[in-house]
C-alpha cells in the first residue's frame, strides 16, 4: 500500500557546513570537511568535533531569548526561520491549529544538563538554575518552535538516536497524509559536543581518533576509516499537503514520496549482520512510494565511517537496489549530527534531486575494496527520478525516506 | 542599588540595558515567573540578598525591586 506524498517547500540548515542552505551546499560540493580539534574537549580521549562555524546565538536570536534556550533549540529556531522564509510562509497569516511541529533529537540538551550538574556537585542544589528543566529536555525543541511561530497543531519530538530526524520527517508525512495538518515544520536538532557525551561515544569505540589529521578524521567508506566525528546543528523542512502548497502558489522543491521505519530487534549498537532491519526499512519506503527498487538513482547513505555501519549498509544497498545508484555520505563534511543527522541529510537529498548534482563523499581517498558501490568522489551530475536517504541508530532503529523531484 | 540590579539583569539574565528604568514593569523587561525565580537566586548568590520569588513577583516596577533589595541589604 502506498501513502500520500508530501511537498517540501522550505529548507533551513544550521550545520558544521555553514549557517544557511547556500553556504551548506557550497561547503558540501567543495568538499570542505568541518572536523577540527576542539579545545572544549581537552581531557577527553577524543578531541575532535564538527562545530557550527561562527554561531552567535545572541546576534541571531537576541541575548535575552538565547539565554533561556539550550544550544540545540537555538540551532532549530535559526533553521526554522530560514525554512519558513524559503517557503514564503508566514505562520501568522495561517490557521496555527493546522500547523504541526515534529522534530528529532537524540539527547536533549546535554550541555545545559552537564553545566547544572556541575553546579549541583560543586555548589549545592540550592544554586541549580530554575531554567534547567525549561531548557534541557528534548521536548522543549518542539515547544519552543511552536511558541516562535504560533504553530498550535500536533507537537512532537521523536527520540530514536541517529534515526530521530529521519523518523520525524516520516511522522510529519503521515500527519499530513492523514489530514491532521496542512503544514508541518519537520526535521531535527542536536548539540551533542560536550565532554560527557563525546567521552561516552569514545568509550564505545565509535569515534575517529585521527587527531594528527583533523580534516581527514571523518572518512566514510574509506579503507582507513576509524569511526565518526561528533557534529552539531539542525535541519528543518517545511512540509505541506501538495494541494495546500498548490493553493498558495508555493514553489515545491521536491517531494517526500515514501518512508519506512523498522527495528533490528537484535543488538543495542551493532547492526544486524545481514542488515535485516535497514533492508526492511528501504523496502517499506519504496512500497510507501509505490516505486520499484531499480528506480533508485541515488542514496544519501548513513555512512558514519564506523567499520560495521559502512560494510553492512554497503552490502544492503548492493543487494536491494539493482539499479546501481550513485551513493554519497555527506558525513565526510559534516560529521555525525546524531538526532539531527537524518534531517540534515534529508535536506541535502532534496537539494540533490532538485539540482541534479550529487555532492561527493569527502576524504574518500581509498575506497574500501569490501564496499562494492558506485561512490561519488567528486560533485557528479545525475538525473535523479528517485533517491533514498538512510539512517541507522544505536538502539537498532532504521529509518529511510524516499525523495523525488517536484 | 539600582545599578547593582541593572548589572545583574543585563549580565546574568541578558535583559537589554535600555529597557531597565526605575519605572519599568516586570512585563517590560520580560520578567516572567521563571525569570523571577532566576533573579531571586542570582540576587542571593551574587549579593547575598535573600528575597523570595513570591515577594519579588509582587513588585510592580524595577523601583519596587530596588526598594526590596535596600530593605534586605540594610537588614544584613
What does this structure look like?
- Chain B: InterPro entries: ACP-like_sf, PP-bd_ACP.
- The complex is a heterodimer of chains A (406) and B (76).
- Chain A has 2 domains: 6-247, Thiolase/Chalcone synthase (Peroxisomal Thiolase, Chain A, domain 1), CATH 3.40.47.10; 256-405, Peroxisomal Thiolase, Chain A, domain 1 (3-Layer(aba) Sandwich), CATH 3.40.47.
- Helices cover 34% and strands 19% of the residues of chain A.
- Chain A has helices spanning 21-29, 57-61, 63-67, 71-87, 110-122, 132-135, 139-149, 164-177, 195-204, 242-247, 276-288, 307-320, 331-334, 341-355, and strands at residues 6-15, 18-19, 36-37, 48-49, 99-104, 155-158, 183-190, 233-240, 254-263, 298-300, 326-328, 357-358, 374-375, 380-381, 387-392, 397-405.
- In chain A, strands 1, 2, 5, 6, 7, 8, 9, 10, 11, 13, 15 and 16 form a 12-stranded mixed sheet that branches. Chain A has a two-stranded antiparallel ribbon with strand order 3-4.
- In chain A, helix 4 (71-87) packs across helix 7 (139-149).
- Chain A starts with 5 loop residues before the first strand and ends with a strand.
- The model of chain A has no long low-confidence stretch (mean pLDDT 97).
- Chain B has one domain (2-75): Non-ribosomal Peptide Synthetase Peptidyl Carrier Protein, Chain A, CATH 1.10.1200.
- Chain B is globular and about 30 Å long.
- The mean pLDDT of chain B is 94.
- The interface between A and B is small, with 12 and 10 residues.
Amino acid at each position: 500500500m502506498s501513502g500520500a506524498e508530501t511537498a517540501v517547500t522550505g529548507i533551513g540548515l544550521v550545520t558544521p557546513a555553514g549557517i544557511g542552505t547556500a553556504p551548506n551546499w557550497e561547503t558540501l560540493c567543495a568538499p570542505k570537511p568541518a572536523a577540527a580539534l576542539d579545545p572544549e574537549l581537552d581531557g577527553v580521549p577524543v578531541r575532535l568535533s564538527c562545530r557550527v562555524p561562527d554561531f552567535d546565538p545572541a546576534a541571531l536570536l537576541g541575548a535575552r531569548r538565547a539565554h533561556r534556550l539550550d544550544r540545540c533549540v537555538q540551532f532549530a529556531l535559526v533553521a526554522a526561520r530560514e525554512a519558513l522564509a524559503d517557503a514564503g510562509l508566514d505562520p501568522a497569516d495561517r490557521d496555527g491549529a493546522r500547523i504541526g511541529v515534529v522534530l528529532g533529537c537524540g539527547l536533549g540538551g546535554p550541555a545545559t544538563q552537564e553545566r547544572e550538574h556541575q553546579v549541583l556537585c560543586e555548589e549545592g542544589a540550592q544554586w541549580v538554575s530554575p531554567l534547567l528543566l525549561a531548557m534541557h529536555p528534548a521536548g522543549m525543541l518542539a515547544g519552543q518552535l511552536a511558541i516562535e511561530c504560533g504553530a498550535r497543531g500536533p507537537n512532537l519530538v521523536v527520540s530514536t538516536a541517529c534515526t530521530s530526524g529521519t523518523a520525524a520527517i516520516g511522522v510529519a508525512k503521515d500527519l499530513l497524509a492523514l489530514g491532521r495538518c496542512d503544514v508541518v515544520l519537520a526535521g531535527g536538532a542536536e548539540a551533542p559536543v560536550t565532554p560527557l557525551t563525546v567521552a561516552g561515544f569514545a568509550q564505545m569505540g565509535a569515534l575517529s581518533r585521527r587527531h594528527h589529521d583533523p580534516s581527514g578524521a571523518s572518512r566514510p567508506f574509506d579503507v582507513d576509516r576509524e569511526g565518526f566525528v561528533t557534529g552539531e546543528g539542525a535541519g528543518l523542512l517545511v512540509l505541506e499537503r501538495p494541494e495546500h502548497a498548490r493553493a498558495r502558489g508555493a514553489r515545491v522543491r521536491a517531494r517526500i514520496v515514501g518512508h519506512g521505519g523498522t527495528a533490528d530487534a537484535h543488538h543495542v549498537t551493532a547492526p544486524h549482520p545481514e542488515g535485516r532491519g535497514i533492508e526492511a526499512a528501504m523496502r517499506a519506503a519504496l512500497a510507501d512510494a509505490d516505486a520499484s527498487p531499480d528506480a533508485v538513482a541515488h542514496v544519501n547513505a548513513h555512512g558514519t565511517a564506523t567499520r560495521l555501519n559502512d560494510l553492512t549498509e554497503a552490502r544492503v544497498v548492493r543487494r536491494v537496489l539493482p539499479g546501481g545508484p550513485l551513493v554519497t555520505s555527506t558525513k565526510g563534511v559534516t560529521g555525525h549530527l546524531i538526532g539531527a543527522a537524518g534531517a540534515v541529510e534529508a535536506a541535502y537529498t532534496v537539494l540533490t534531486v532538485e539540482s541534479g548534482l550529487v555532492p561527493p563523499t569527502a576524504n574518500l581517498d581509498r575506497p574500501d575494496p569490501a564496499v562494492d558501490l558506485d561512490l561519488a568522489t567528486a560533485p557528479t551530475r545525475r538525473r535523479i527520478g528517485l533517491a533514498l536517504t538512510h539512517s541507522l541508530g544505536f538502539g537498532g532503529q532504521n529509518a529511510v525516506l524516499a525523495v523525488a523531484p517536484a | 542599588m539600582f545599578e547593582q540590579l541593572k548589572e545583574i539583569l543585563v549580565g546574568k539574565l541578558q535583559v537589554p540595558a535600555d529597557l531597565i528604568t526605575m519605572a519599568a514593569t516586570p512585563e517590560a523587561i520580560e520578567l516572567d515567573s521563571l525569570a523571577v525565580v532566576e533573579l531571586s537566586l542570582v540576587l542571593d548568590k551574587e549579593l547575598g540578598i535573600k528575597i523570595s520569588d513570591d515577594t519579588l513577583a509582587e513588585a510592580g516596577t524595577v523601583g519596587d525591586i530596588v526598594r526590596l533589595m535596600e530593605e534586605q541589604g540594610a537588614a544584613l
